[in-house]
Queue: 2 jobs
Job 1
Amino acid sequence: MPRTLLVIDDDRDIRLVAQTSLELVGGFHVIVADSGHRGLAFANEVRPDAILLDLMMPDLDGRKTLDELKRMPKTASIPVIMLTAKVQAHQLDLMCHGAAGVLVKPFDPMQLPNQVCEILGWGPSKNDEEQSDRAAE
Amino acid sequence: VTGPRNENKVRAALEKVWLNSRPEAISRLAVLESFIEKLRSGRVDDQCLDVARSAAHRLAGSLGMFGLDEGSSCAGNIEALLCQDSAPDIVLIEDLVHQLHNLLEATPAPMKTQQNRDL
């Protein structure tokens, strides 16, 4: 049973590339949300193994979404990795808010799953052919 | 390491994404080009600056995923210039937007990822 990741990003390209990479290279099951509000709803409903959350989003931004995820009992323990293009200014602050780590955009789609696993201490991603074939179907 | 079959699958999927994304990247570039026109004519307000910043931010965050590292870096530099407290340097921004234009124009097909380039 592959692990489930929730990707929350308002940028369609980022969602598509992250999903492609995490499914085909990493063998994860991926669900996506295009806003903080939708992400909170999915996180509550699905309770993914981890969340990749964009920092800069209109309306409910990544920081507020992270605070909300950590506040809700059903989602508080889900590790959250922040996606940001401006790592230096935000990294320490985000770690204080309870993020498991920070990934800088743009990411290399071939490397993303391993970076996620490294941050979460999951070991190498399952990128064998059989796993990825299943994910692609 | 991802196997060759996966490598091809990922590449094909990313090519498809890029083909769909390129028009959006071009329209974000158009936002920046229009911003320069406004900057020249002194018609820049906060809203216009925010829209340009957002376009640069999105280009910086997405182009590199398709192997367009130079474009990403160019857009990142534009964003940094637009985030400064002082008035944006029109010559510098214009030069960067011009570079970005040339890079995107020269990239009708998807670029290779870092790993693909290393193969």
Job 2
Amino acid sequence: MERPLKLRIKYGFYRGYRPVMDDAPWRSFRTMEEYRRWCEKELPEYLGYRRTK
Amino acid sequence: MNGRRQFRPLQAEEIARAFRKEKVEYLFIGKSGAILLGYPGTTQDVDVFPARSLENGRRLLTALRKIGFEIGSDLKRDILSGKDFVQIKSGPFDVDLVFAPDGIEGFAKAKERAVLEGIFRVANLRDIIASKRASGRQKDKIELPLLESFRVEYEKRHAPSLRSAKEKAIRKPKK
């Protein structure tokens, strides 16, 4: 919290690569539920997008 | 594995400036919002909660194009129609437009509770946490205890200032 805003941005944001997730230029979903289902079906489990039971 | 352009810190300011210039109604939410408030985490996505209206959608499109996002006709249609979730990776950084974040009842209420951090309009930490809790994702479940602890500390340091004597007198109920 002591870090000035510029440093929060500098060290907080980066651009890596996530399989599947980053392989399309864009995607859209009519509902959040559709998006959540897509994540569960398509993304590798280790990315952490699956919902907990 | 990663041939994508790297995120530059200035880009965060560019998006906020572009939104301000085009008068976009929006809030930063998600982990990106928490980071702007000082949470010591990292993220790849800039999560934006825009107000859902045709006019705001048009402003959003203009702002995103000005900062280098390539937006074709199909993507334009989906942004203007206000789909709940639009994920864009065709620009200088990755942005998620979340028109209906889980756990937040609506833009107007969230805006009332929002904070201005520099030039960034950021959702209240309580809303950010509520949204992550409602999503129920594994990665959020891991992060939530840390975000909660951060919120406690943040609220201690950003407690609303005591009301002035004049304000107290004005608000004093009449007998």
